[in-house]
Design goal:
alpha+beta, 18 helices, 4-stranded mixed beta sheet, 4-stranded antiparallel beta sheet, 538 residues, 54% helix, single chain
Length: 538
């Protein structure tokens, strides 16, 4: 294959065969195929959980390369959970946990490679909230198996993962600093145990959940404090003799409620409702002037090492040589801010011409245009927005479920919190490719190739570079969009539960029945209902 290199004396060797091979390599897919996920989504949205799990296992070798092994564990864990194979789900979650730990214990140079390399060729390392959700799903697995100790172990691991999230943030303020639902779930588990020590632990977990919902979750995700949670905090505080604290909480969160009374939790059915499909990542593609790219490169130079530093220095020399740009470090902030604003306010829907055609068009109209692709979460509309639960005869009003974990909103906000760094890396990577294209065109022209030949080479290389600018769109997309909870006090014994599924207007559009739900005196029994459908799907 012909070789294009830009270095000290800026020499170039090229061939049409080399460029064609480079284009073919650049356009190769790196992630799990869309057609595969389309089939998987169909199985999940039509409540064919066993078929979904089989689909994941059958396509393990074909669809999940080694760099995508974490996605395989994620998808297997969730589909097994939905299929009721909680043991297999926990095995997959354990493998996912180990893969995440392996990623962060390996050397940075070995894992991160170069920040000028497209993220798609690296091993997927998970979003912050995904590494926490691993243990939330694990806790639910154990709950449904009746293993409270196992569920509690998983719930306690959340704190360790949140510390990793804080470390990844590097001191920057981010929305996802705690998981209110994980705290709430821990409280429900501890409260179900019975001892005074565990009652104290339950109170602490409930109180942490209350604070997280009333502060971070309400502000960042529009998720209000669950009504039942306030009652739990008041009851456990009274049971421990924390009368002053209980009264303080009552006045702040439930001023119309009577003073808290001591007492153990009543016999109760807790219904978890999973609805919708988690958002999927798409490409957000934008173009900008090379001056901005050069400014960002100078900023990236401050943290670059090894091969990164060599490529940045070479790119800057090349840009100076061809007279393309002059931008300085002072301009970098404005460039990044402008691009971020454009990204935040523009729709992520990418339709029409292919990425390659957009790139060719951009190169044809401007010699100083750089193309960048960054990921954006696209919400997937779902028809079932809530649920109403009735025990026994399915007549009259029931208990409405409450939103406790908006995975969709958490995912969207988490990506926004780190998009600045993602954008900076993408700009740096694209600018290096741009410098290569500019340098090759100028050198061909100097060698006597003529203006048209130089334009052709520069356009071809730039178009190839733009076409390879594909965002890392990997994510745990088999998660539900939301998790809701309904809690119903009942007498001990065996019960039939009817779940009315509600649309956006609160109208019941379907009813499902769960028979043989056994409840022990003073204990909670946990069940679930799944409506992970896409828009209009059943």
């Amino acid at each position: 294959m012909g070789r294009l290199s830009v270095s000290g004396k800026l020499s170039v060797r090229w061939s049409r065969v080399g460029l064609a091979a480079l284009s073919a390599c650049a356009l190769a897919a790196c992630g799990v195929s869309q057609s595969y996920y389309k089939d998987l989504d169909r199985y999940i949205s039509t409540n064919q959980a066993a078929a979904a799990m089989e689909h994941v296992q059958k396509n393990a070798e074909k669809e999940y390369a080694s760099r995508n092994r974490l996605l395989y564990y994620f998808d297997l864990a969730l589909t097994a959970h939905l299929a009721g194979d909680y043991q297999k789900s926990n095995e997959a979650l354990a493998a996912a946990e180990k893969a995440i730990e392996d990623f962060y214990t390996k050397s940075v140079s070995a894992q991160a490679a170069s920040f000028l390399v497209n993220d798609n060729v690296k091993e997927y390392a998970s979003e912050d909230f995904e590494m926490v959700i691993v243990h939330v799903i694990g806790a639910l697995n154990y709950l449904f198996m009746g293993d409270l100790e196992g569920a509690l172990v998983e719930a306690r691991k959340v704190d360790l993962k949140l510390k990793v999230v804080a470390e990844r943030a590097g001191g920057k303020k981010i929305a996802y600093q705690t998981d209110a639902f994980a705290r709430y779930l821990a409280g429900l588990i501890q409260d179900n145990q019975g001892s005074t020590e565990e009652l104290n632990d339950a109170f602490i977990s409930y109180r942490q959940a209350l604070e997280a919902y009333s502060e971070e979750y309400l502000k960042n995700y529009k998720t209000p404090v669950p009504t039942a949670l306030v009652n739990d905090v008041l009851r456990t505080a009274a049971g421990l003799g924390f009368s002053e604290e209980a009264e303080e909480i009552r006045k702040k969160y439930a001023p119309d409620a009577p003073a808290a009374q001591r007492g153990k939790p009543s016999s109760e059915i807790v219904v978890f409702h999973y609805t919708g499909l988690a958002p999927e990542k798409v490409d957000f593609v934008t173009q900008f002037g090379a001056g901005c790219g050069a400014a960002v490169l100078q900023v990236q130079e401050q943290e670059a090492k090894g091969e990164d530093l060599k490529q940045i220095k070479t790119a800057m020399k090349t840009l100076a040589f061809v007279g393309a740009v002059a931008g300085g470090v002072a301009a970098a902030g404005n460039c990044s801010g402008g691009l971020y604003a454009a990204y935040a306010s523009t729709s992520s829907e990418e339709q029409g011409t292919s990425r390659a055609m957009r790139a060719v068009g951009a190169v044809a109209t401007s010699g100083n245009t750089i193309t960048v692709a960054i990921p954006d979460f696209k919400r997937r509309p779902f028809p079932i927005k809530g649920s109403e639960i009735v025990v026994g005869e399915a007549t009259g009003p029931g208990v409405r479920s409450e939103l406790v974990e908006d995975i969709e909103a958490i995912g969207v906000q988490s990506l926004k919190d780190r998009i600045g760094r993602v954008l900076g890396k993408a700009v740096a990577r694209a600018t290096v490719k741009f410098a290569l294209a500019q340098g090759s065109g100028k050198l061909v022209e100097k060698a006597g190739g003529g203006g048209l030949m130089a334009w052709a080479v520069k356009s071809a290389v730039a178009a190839t570079g733009s076409a390879t600018e594909e965002a890392d769109k990997r994510s745990w997309r088999t998660l539900p969009a939301q998790i809701r909870i309904a809690r119903l006090p009942v007498a001990p014994g065996e019960h039939t539960v009817t779940v009315r599924l509600l649309d956006a207007n609160g109208r019941a559009v379907e009813a499902r029945t769960i028979s043989g739900v056994k409840v022990t005196a003073g204990k909670r029994t946990f069940v679930r209902v799944v409506t992970m459908q896409g828009k209009g799907g059943r």
